[in-house]
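It is worth pausing here to work through a concrete case rather than discussing structure prediction in the abstract. The textbook approach is simple: state the sequence, then state the predicted structure, then interpret. We follow exactly that order.
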Amino acid sequence: MDSKHNKVALVTGAGTGIGKAAAKSLLKAGFRVVLTGRNLERLEKAIIDIGGDQASCLAVACDVGKPSDVKKLFAALQEKFSRIDVLFNNAGIGAPAIPMEDLSYEQWMNVVNANLSGAFLCSQEAIRMMKAQSPQGGRIINNGSISAYAPRPMSAPYTATKHAISGLTKSIALDGRQFNIACGQIDIGNAATEMTEPMAAGIMQADQSIKVEPRMNVEHVGEAVLQMAQLPLESNILSMTIMATNMPFVGRG
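Step two, the predicted structure:
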């Protein structure tokens, strides 16, 4: 079981973008990969796109903000692969870029459920499996965001939940020590995905101006997630920032 070719990784929000890129990197490195998201057809296509098959990959439709869905996801993972070595809590959404006072409660809760509750629920189930399996332990990687430290205009739900992810990461890292469970966070700035396409046309800055922002190849993020995932459990990257070199972060605002 020490071989990486026997290790199992679960990636949430794996149908597109960062999740799909991470799943691809993990698969190519020898991990067996469970891909989850809301759209099963998209997940199945992603498996084909990354070069997976029925032996190496599993697609499970899941809304990570729903406890019953998460339990079914982990039951399917347990049945297929019997263990979990890496969880990448990647699934997340944003709310419309409108003034905070104009957001509905439903819009707020949609972001909270996807970004924060989803990471909490998946981590709960992963920790239970990691504690019970032999050899014991595993690694949880949370997708944070540069926005948690330098918010964009009109992004209160996204920024608040990503800031909370930092606290969740540190709590898991602390509480998981005695069970050989490591936890780290990757903060990503301007990966070229569907979510960041507006940046290529111009996006609002802190001074209300509209500017085009540089983006980076999303494959680089997948490689960074793999770097974290491949570390022996005696070592941990608690926090990593990967960003487009010329994006307005250092000095933003």
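Step three, interpretation. The longest strand covers residues 181-189. The mean pLDDT is 93.
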